[in-house]
Amino acid sequence: MAAARLCLCLFLCLLRLPRDAFAAGPAAAGPGAGRGPGDGMNVLFIVVDDLRPVLGCYGDKLVKSPNIDQLASQSMVFSNAYAQQALCAPSRVSFLTGRRPDTTRLYDFYSYWRVHAGNYSTMPQYFKENGYVTMSVGKVFHPGVSSNYSDDYPYSWSIPPFHPSAEKHENDKTCRGKDGKLHANLVCPVNVTEMPGGTLPDIQSTEEAIHLLNVMKTTRQKFFLAVGYHKPHIPLRYPQEFLKLYPLENITLAPDPWVPKKLPSVAYNPWMDIRQRDDVEALNVSFPYGPLPDDFQRRIRQSYYAAVSYLDVQVGLLLSALDDAGLSNNTIVVFTADHGWSLGEHGEWAKYSNFDVATRVPLMFYVPGMTTSPVSRGARVFPFLDPFSHIGGSVPQGQSKKVVELVSLFPTLAELAGLQVPPACPEMSFGFVLCTEGRSIAHYFNISEGKVEQGKEGCDDTERCFNEEPVALSQYPRPADTPQWNSDKPRLKDIRIMGYSMRAFHYRYTLWVQFDPSNFSADFKNVHAGELYMMDNDPNQDYNIYNNTSHGWFFKKIIDFLKH
């Protein structure tokens, strides 16, 4: 921590040189750059690990999330946003580069895109090259091989990324069981004072992010600060007092806690990382479909909600500090997650699938003067709200039901900040340093205050509307047609099948096709299985009608989408 802060101090000393002493770099905004609504504004980019939209602003009646809801009340909220793969490293590299997993060639954790795919620019790199000080706190890139053991520093960041010291204890035996001993459990409410260092990773990340805000307020330099929170990623380790918000008698099972009868076996994820936790392993649940006991399912769901409220407090402290620093009037705030997490739906836990519960994420943008009225310097936009005492909810400032993708974050944020939007990638883009496979969704912001933009308007030309309807594409690899020990996280060399899933407002269509990892090719002439769910009468995606329906249109659309 001390080294990173020294580096920042030295960097900021250099920033006191005349602005023209710094070349913005090859991707700098030139005369072709447009003025966006947030032109010249800072960016606070908040990304959460494994957070499905169990938030009050998304209609959840049980959760206590007043600070995130307050952010939503000042933001444009997208209620149908989807990740490109329900796994941390592939999803993060995808939205940070604006490229899909088939282009980053990352489906696991074990390759660095600049070496194995192409030297693609990243979103923070682009802001850095356009004169921003870029900083990373917590889990933004997935650490390890997939970000070159450096979180892509120095390409993406002006100073070395900060990782909380308590992070190294995440999988230690720190959960006190009924026997009084310490275990490596899934469900892990803790006394923070008994933790190594007397703290938890997300607490440390909040403290560091607040420190950086206070440093940056003294400069006139624009900044891009990315803050990555760990919870509610497993283990579900959080301060034990948050359990009080969720009495176990108020916790229900998932609405569909069974494995659907017509679910192809290749589509099922056997949640191996859950099984390996001490408390789950003690249950001796059969592989792969054996259900967890109902009471333990409730305890997992209870702890997930408690972890979300713990996260909400961290977000609340961070946003309140943005107010305190006098930066709420000129800082764009983005809040999202890398993917969702199954809480017993379809008899599944964790992520590792193409269902909505694994791929759908919260996504909201706060842009002063655009999603709100102009904000005066020093205004209190985000006063901290205590989830233990706050009563009442907040309604999103604007809400769109349009289907959107995380791969669109890069061009959207560039447009909002007034930078030149990176060009669309050609069909083969491995040699292109700067382009994006997502499309800016900033044009969806232009709706009246408090209104909800529907996901699909009425249309007279059914075929044209079907072809033009916005969709999100997610994908997930499998090693075999039936659940294996490595079905959740197959390494590249073991991938034999790829599940491509197209989500539109009214349906989800998934094809599981033959995949060759040696040349990254999918064979759509060799379909192993398919899924089709119609959302109007099957919102939980329980009844697969693929084998009972003609789906030539869907097949053509997914092929056309992948080509473009």
Could you describe the largest sheet, including whether it forms a barrel? 8 strands, mixed
Helix segment count?
Answer: 14
Q: Provide the residue-averaged pLDDT.
A: 91
Q: Indicate the low-confidence ranges by residue numbers.
A: 13-32
Dominant shape: globular
Binned strand content: 15-25%
- Structural class designation: alpha/beta
As a whole number of angstroms, the C-alpha radius of gyration is 23 Å
Percentage of residues in helical conformation: 10-25%
Q: Main sheet: which strands, in order across?
A: 3-7-1-9-12-2-13-14
Distance between the termini: 44 Å
DSSP summary, beta strand count: 18
Spell out the key features of this protein.
alpha/beta; eight-stranded mixed β-sheet; 18 strands; four-stranded antiparallel β-sheet; 14 helices; 564 residues; globular; Sulfatase_CS
Task: Give an overview of the whole structure.
By secondary structure, the chain is an alpha/beta fold. Helix content is 23%, strand content 19%. The protein is built from 14 helices and 18 strands. The protein has helices spanning 2-15, 66-72, 88-97, 101-104, 113-116, 123-129, 201-216, 272-275, 278-281, 294-324, 356-359, 409-416, 462-468, 552-563, and strands spanning 42-48, 76-82, 133-138, 175-176, 182-183, 187-190, 223-229, 236-239, 331-337, 342-343, 349-350, 360-366, 398-405, 452-453, 472-478, 497-503, 507-516, 521-534. Helix 2 (66-72) packs across helix 10 and helix 7 runs parallel beside helix 10. The longest helix has 31 residues, at 294-324. Mean pLDDT is 91; it is low at 13-32.
